[in-house]
């Protein structure tokens, strides 16, 4: 069964070549660029079967658009800072037409890297990336989009993995990620609020330390020494900022309610 790989990118010269090389086994590589100003276009055109520039539509909509450009119904949705492991590629190539007919989407784990090191506490980080594009429904999540099967029985799982930012040279800035976090926080908070989520004092008081201990103890961060401690602290700070942003959104909404 032929399979396409779809990559959405923007200023991804740091990691795009590794992503493309990891997809060399696929029957087609479609790359959608949302307006790069670095060396990304040149790299993309070296590897892509089809390369196009499309203004940013949002995380889910951009990937849905890229999947729609693919010639084949089975599409692997890959980010420009990810790589398909050889193990996962082999498992996909061994899937029979009969097995694919029984599924709408396959999930598999993602191994995340920060400052060049594998983040144990963020695994298995399951991703829904191998899809039958005509049978899945795309979620409307602001940030962590999913592809949803028509029925739970039509979801498959593979043990091979994708690597996230394994070759990135972002270093310390990737751990801190202040600007990127700021850009995404309010978007996520507004969606949480629209879905009925609210922030209480208990959320601000309890959720950050719970996130820390979950990452450090339950998820094994303690086994990674100082690096694991930093990742646990990042989990606590990210949680605190997310709920603080939610509080700000609900406070703003409350002020706009007419008496």
Lay out the secondary structure.
Layout: E1 3-9, H1 16-22, E2 28-33, H2 40-47, E3 50-53, H3 59-69, E4 74-79, E5 82-84, H4 86-93, H5 97-101, E6 105-108, E7 110-114, E8 117-118, E9 127-132, E10 137-138, E11 147-148, E12 155-157, E13 162-164, H6 172-176, H7 178-194, H8 201-218, H9 225-255
Parallel strand pairs: 1-2, 1-4, 2-3, 6-12, 7-13
Antiparallel strand pairs: 4-9, 5-13, 6-9, 7-8, 10-11
Description of the structure:
This protein has 259 residues and is α/β, with parallel strands linked by helices. It is globular, with a radius of gyration of 20 Å. Strand 10 (137-138) and strand 11 (147-148) form a beta hairpin. It has helices spanning 16-22, 40-47, 59-69, 86-93, 97-101, 172-176, 178-194, 201-218, 225-255; strands at residues 3-9, 28-33, 50-53, 74-79, 82-84, 105-108, 110-114, 117-118, 127-132, 137-138, 147-148, 155-157, 162-164. It folds into two domains: 3-164, Spore Coat Polysaccharide Biosynthesis Protein SpsA, Chain A, CATH 3.90.550.10; 177-255. The model has no long low-confidence stretch (mean pLDDT 93).
Descriptive tags:
42% helix; single chain; Spore Coat Polysaccharide Biosynthesis Protein SpsA, Chain A; 259 residues; alpha/beta; four-stranded mixed sheet
